[in-house]
Write a structure and sequence with these properties.
Distance between the termini: 33 Å
Largest sheet: 3 strands, antiparallel
Radius of gyration: 15 Å
Number of helices: 2
Structural class: alpha+beta
Order of helices and strands: HHEEE
Strand content: 15-25%
Number of strands: 3
Shape: globular
Length: 79
């Protein structure tokens, strides 16, 4: 598995931009983990949401549109 991770990192490093890097990442992780779906959400802290930035297995039209709301954990939850 460590060799697979190294290969993924090398491919991601060679990507021309962030979107391409994320596409490579989800495709390779999905293959390595043998899953139906692999997705990356990015936190937009000011809007308090995670936005879907790349996916392999979900509808591609959801990329950049679908989001999950984010709430900061309370100090009690951090313990």
């Amino acid at each position: 598995m460590l060799n697979v991770l190294r290969q993924i990192v090398q491919e991601v490093n060679s990507a021309s931009n962030l979107d391409h890097a994320l596409d490579i990442l989800v495709a390779r992780v999905q293959e390595a983990m043998v899953t139906q779906v692999c997705s990356v959400y990015v936190l937009e802290q000011e809007q308090k949401r995670f936005v879907l930035k790349a996916t392999k297995g979900l509808n591609q039209s959801a990329v950049g549109v679908s989001c999950l709301l984010y709430t900061s954990p309370s100090p009690r939850d951090r313990q």
